[in-house]
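Q: Joint fold for the lines below.
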Amino acid sequence: MYGFEAMTFNIHGGYLEAIVRGYRSGLLTAADYNNLCQCETLDDIKMHLSATEYGPYLQNEPSPLHTTTIVEKCTLKLVDEYKHMLTQATEPLSTFLEYITYGHMIDNVVLIVTGTLHERDVQELLEKCHPLGMFDSIATLAVAQNMRELYRLVLVDTPLAPYFSECITSEDLDDMNIEIMRNTLYKAYLEDFYRFCQKLGGATAEIMSDLLAFEADRRAVNITINSIGTELTREDRRKLYSNFGLLYPYGHEELAICEDIDQVRGAMEKYPPYQSIFSKLSYGESQMLDKAFYEEEVKRLCLSFEQQFHYAVFFAYMRLREQEIRNLMWISECVAQNQKSRVHDSVVFIF
Amino acid sequence: MEYIDRLPSMDLMRSEKMMLAQLIIPVESAHRAVSYLGQLGLLQFRDLNDDKSPFQRTFVNQVKRCAEMSRKLRFFKDQIHKAGLGLSPHPASETDIELEDLEVGLAEHEHELIEMNHNSEKLQKTYNELLEFKMVLQKAGDFLMPDGNHSADHETELDENVHTNNDYADSASLLEQEMQPGMSDQSGVKFVSGVICKSKALRFERMLFRTTRGNMLFNQAPADDPIVDPASNEMVENIVFMVFFSGEQARKKIHKICEAFGANCYPVPEDSIKRRQITRDVLSRLSELETTLEAGLRHRDAALNSIAFQLTKWMNMVRREKAIYDTLNMLNFDVTKKCLVGEGWCPIFAKTMIQDALQRATFDSSSQVGIIFHVMDSIESPPTFFRTNHFTNAYQEIVDAYGVAKYQEANPAVYTVITFPFLFAVMFGDWGHGICLLLGALVLIAREKRLGSQKLGSFMEMLFGGRYVLLLMSLFSIYCGFIYNEFFSVPFHIFGSSAYKCRDATCRYQFVPQMIFLNSLFGYLSLLIIIKWCTGSQADLYHVMIYMFLSPFEDLGENKLFWGQAVIAVPWMLFPKPFILKRLHTERFQGRAYGILGTSDMYSDEEPDSARHPHGEEEFNFSEVFVHQMIHSIEFVLGAVSNTASYLRLWALSLAHSELSTVFYEKVLLLAWGYNNFMIRLVGLAVFAFATAFILLMMETLSAFLHALRLHWVEFQNKFYSGDGYKFKPFSFASLTDEDE
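A: Joint structure:
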């Protein structure tokens, strides 16, 4: 019942909403980032992080640190928090929380399949997978030779199975159709998640549809930019766009026929929310587009905490932490490689 | 005046007088001085480098080294714990070692330990592999039949041949040592055998089925013993499997799946004679490895034991060192970089002790220059420090949980010592239950020494911390119980008929906390009571108060104290108070303004960093103060009425308690006693005892405790207690223990 969540929300969701808001207050602030950017070595970063909520996760690491260790431990914290919330959650929140991980699951499937295609060691690939996107039989992905086998052997047991109906072909796997598979799966996932949120109704539906629409539109732009100059036909490209979002359907028509970045820009500038993103970039440039999109996303995610009694805060928190870990990774890399002048290139401040 | 001077000092009533002191310490004696101060534990350093991030401070490297050392110590502790050894509780009485030596020593120990772990892990892995191989060989024999000819109809004989194989395995002679991959050329059927974790077995089988499209046969048998997984150091239950299939493609796929599932495959020869040879071989190698492993383990345990002997001491030492450097990081370098300048709060009585410690530090580090210690003035409010003992500590904690007293503010803990147990007892008045509580409290106090030295669970710790509260609570309950005439809800006429009946007593004893409460208000209210006492009027104070507000001009009948009291009292309470307070306020502000002027004149040439300068002058705003006081007085009047009503909970809970115990007494105990059956009486007694212990003694105690707490925090303390001070947290080694665990 829209507008009346306050009456019943706290019966099941109140505890976890409090938990997630508590977690959110542990996010690094601009002051933290400023201090981190001044660090000279990775040990300094560890020392600074030891005063934050990452402290317990890093304190037992021996001294010559590596960027991967920092990122791994920070991710571990996120995973621990996620698992804690998932075990406490009841329906439909638990399903909602599970939906959040499907994106990582798709990425992991693609990572393993691409890796085996290039004959990498499976164990090595498994270490690179995001822990949130792990599922039981993920290692057996290496056995599959084509999409049909991939589906029949492994993915039929995972929640990704329904998303696969679009891309079952008997072709052998190669880089191109793996990438198409990734985008098809992601499209199906986003649409499914969108429908699920609509079904939940109330403030969750309202805020999540906004956040997911942004995600879908960003993917549409990225697909367009990445497919410029490849063999992907306009029709195929059109098929990869999700069927919702601000750009749907007229924006998709325009994006489908774009041949260079400036045409994309022309199409996007008709939409006021994206106008401000593109106005930050100079013509012909697409390098900083990612950062601009991330900044806009972080802004929207933070705003979702302004409202109460809805599930979007869980989604927003997970995304914000992931952004924070990306920031930490970038800062650590810059510090480790002595490239401190570039440290601000990719860090997106959250507060 | 003489009489007042002879009174005992009011330690608990007013917090200790504090002073802000400045220390100028030469660099060479700084470490020692700080460590002596830490032992003394009476100086709270102020952080003078607040604007610097942790890694920009002076002693950052030392702090990092300490953190690294404590990481190693945690590693040792973890290892010792895993090996099932205990730490020696008493720190070894060896001579102190230098921090540098300790650092080197720790690094050596860690290196040694890691190497030993690595070696034993490798050995353990080999051992486990052999163990698994042994199991596979034994089980495979069952699958393949002892004489090993046709693998097609092995299924039927599987169960019958379990026992025969083991006997053969031991008696056969060792002829060949090489291992053959398990293949059979007779029927084109091949097999792969191995070991897999039990939890994965089902998925493994399903995956095999799907991959081979059902053209395989999966046999499994549970392994005999669980095996330690070297990765996680946990016991894992495994199963032995054997997959039969045909075709080269299938073999590749099955191998890939085994790899993906982390199943260990072992080649098993189909020939039973060879199998026995290999089994013999494996068994002999296993026993060899076992002795090696045991020797390694003994060696490691010895090393860990020697570490465990000193670990507590090392941990204390590193913790102290880290605290010292953290404190040193709070100090500033002076201009010449030869001295450290620190500021801190200390109680005035500790001045000589601190000076003494500083002198010792100068002497012990044979420094040429002494440490300068002088007192500074401060505008900032000093921290609050009460010297408590075992007895008063718990009560102080109760008050601090609400808010720490402002510096030199009257401390409600003094009253709480008596009022808290008393209010509790009013709700819990039953001397039978009181005696039970008293016994519990006495047990805790009698074992104080023993319990205080060991770690307790969170619940026990709470009980133990409040043991003196519990003691007084139980004594007061016994007292109230006598007055209420209640013993497990049974009226007990110890004082004969002169004792008050329960409800009378309740009413009467509601009246006394009422008095405590009212006394804490302003003179007007207490005056009323004193008049009432003096005149011996029969007026019910409730009626006086309530009707005073409801109908000030009506005749109050016998409740009337004296004519027109309400007419005078209400405006008296409402109007002059804000004005008087306002005037007081004005005076205070003026006084402070002069003070600021005076001090800033005197010290205008000091460094700007110091605390003695005001951080911003408080503007005196007449209208704001006035409005604030108006609101405050209205709140006060309303609060006086509503809070009075709050004290009704005393009556309510007391009634609830006595009714509940009556129910248990009459409906359980008496009912059961009515039957002339021993069993029923026993059951009734048991139920009664259970209900008394858990519901009346535990739950009711908690609820009465909670309400007493609320009455203190909300109704009592909000009348006079601002509680916006901050606690005195001296730099002290004693408070460091187990902080980071």
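Q: Anything notable?
A: Chain A is about 65% helix and 0% strand. The longest helix of chain A spans residues 175-200.
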